[in-house]
Amino acid sequence: MLNEIYSECEDKMKASISHMLRDFKTLRTGKVTVSVLDNVKIDYYGTMTALDQVGSVIATDATTIIINPWEKNLLSAIDGAISRANIGVNPNNDGQQIKLFFPPMTIEQRQESAKQMKVMGEHAKISVRNDRKNANDKIKKLEKDKEITTDESKTAQEIIQKTTDKYAANIEQILKDKEVEILKV
Fold first, then answer.
1. How many C-alpha atoms does 35 have within 13 Å on its Cβ side?
2. How far is CA 77 from CA 43, 58, 151, in A?
3. C-beta of residue 95 within 8 angstroms of C-beta of residue 20
4. pTM of the model
5. Which of 64, 62, 40 is nearest to 53 (CA)?
6. What integer pLDDT is reported at residue 92 of this predicted model?
């Protein structure tokens, strides 16, 4: 039963890091990626739908993204959704496709992206600490219900703390690496 708590806790901590890495994809670094549009959704026949589900989204070079909707009547909806998403560019609609031209990032924009990245990292650390608290609560309940001894409880909590420290250090290293990538001109 303790092994189940350990593995569940570790799985949740891995998921926290995965979530942070997914969030990082929405950040702009030196080279534009289509994932900057991941949070942009349009109303597609009553359902909020991601752009890559209603057309092709391609980064043609380091500063340009082209969106070719499969249905041309979606152009205005896509145009509006991108404008509302406030991703730092205005869509260019030529009646066939939408082009997004991203200017090269300034130092200030890079620093702002680094700040956003640190906030995302802090959320991941909070999530890891919450996972630790949940696991420790389960261990304490086992001890209270006399299913494990006080010594087993203390040892189990130490193991959970070591796991937490490992994932917190992993998050810190990822943040350092990503910051270097973002700030590199």
1. 10
2. 7, 18, 61
3. no
4. 0.71
5. 40
6. 93
Q: What is the pLDDT confidence band of residue 24, given thresholds at 50, 70 and 90?
A: confident
Mean pLDDT for 43-52 is 90
CB 132 within 8 A of CB 123: no
> Distance (Å, rounded) from C-alpha 181 to C-alpha 103?
18
Q: What are the boundaries of each domain within the chain?
A: 2-25+106-183, 34-101
Class of domain 2-25+106-183: mainly alpha
CATH number for the domain whose boundaries are 34-101:
3.30.1360.40
Adjacency order of strands within the sheet including 92-93: 55-61, 64-69, 98-101, 92-93
Contact 5, 135 (CB under 8 A): yes
Residue 106 pLDDT > 90: no
pLDDT in tens, 64-74: 999 999 999 99
- From the number of C-beta atoms within 10 Å of its C-beta (0-12, 13-18, 19+), residue 159 rates as middle
Phi then psi for residue 53, to 5 deg, are: -95, -10
Cβ atoms 45, 74 nearer than 8 A: no
